[in-house]
UniProtKB/TrEMBL annotation:
SUPFAM superfamilies: Dihydrofolate reductase-like. This is Bifunctional deaminase-reductase domain protein. It comes from the Bacteria. GO terms for molecular function: 5-amino-6-(5-phosphoribosylamino)uracil reductase activity. One of its GO terms (biological process) is riboflavin biosynthetic process. PANTHER family: 2,5-DIAMINO-6-RIBOSYLAMINO-4(3H)-PYRIMIDINONE 5'-PHOSPHATE REDUCTASE (PTHR38011:SF11), DIHYDROFOLATE REDUCTASE FAMILY PROTEIN (AFU_ORTHOLOGUE AFUA_8G06820) (PTHR38011). It comes from Ktedonobacter racemifer DSM 44963. Residues 3-177 form the Bacterial bifunctional deaminase-reductase C-terminal domain.
Length: 192
């Protein structure tokens, strides 16, 4: 059975806006961070995207041919499922548009043998899956900068979701990896 892993890159205040990555993401580049990103892709065999994230990434990665960052060959060959009510305008090898019942489709993919299913970006998709109990893990790569404004991953009005911290790691330049699992109803909550 596969795990469904949400993998996000954020500024400390939750900004994950791709238009401002030159301010909150690129200045914190390091070999450690690159190795973490590479490992995440190499331990997955399905990407699940919302349409906006897919249409942002497809033109870049589908045209890369020199296995940049050690992940391009894997990204181009792995299955990609896109949740979209609209047709996809940008082709990317091994892409399928999910049009049926999202929860049933994701549950079916999780039941198949294989590596992790990875969601990157795609905040609207993640928010729609959170109440379903299908998400197994959240991995946040938090960068030490407060942007003050920009598109935030978590929006107001979504309600509380309790998470259990399962792993932390400090990378160079102050970047922190925070890994959480959703609290199961019978899991005691550690309150410090």
């Amino acid at each position: 059975m596969r795990k469904l892993v949400v993998s996000e890159w954020l500024a400390l205040d939750g900004v994950f806006d791709s238009n401002t990555m030159d301010q909150w993401f690129h200045p914190f580049e390091s070999d450690e961070r690159a190795a973490y990103i590479q490992e995440g892709v190499l331990t997955s065999d399905i990407f699940l995207f919302g349409r906006v994230t897919y249409e942002m990434l497809a033109p870049i990665w589908s045209q890369a041919k020199n296995n940049e960052m050690g992940i391009v060959d894997k990204m181009n060959s792995m299955a990609k499922y896109v949740v979209s009510s609209e047709p996809l305008n940008i082709p990317w090898e091994n892409t399928t548009r999910l049009q049926g019942n999202l929860l049933e489709e994701v549950s079916r993919l999780k039941q198949e043998p294989g590596q992790d299913i990875r969601i990157a970006g795609s905040a609207t998709l993640v928010h729609s899956l959170m109440p379903s109990g299908l998400i197994d893990e959240y991995r946040f790569l938090v960068h030490p900068i407060l942007m003050g404004n920009g598109k935030r991953f978590f929006k107001e009005g979504k309600g509380a979701s309790r998470l259990q911290l399962i792993h932390t790691e400090t990378l160079s330049k102050g970047v922190v990896l925070l890994c959480y699992q959703p609290n199961k109803p019978d899991t005691p909550v550690n309150t410090l």
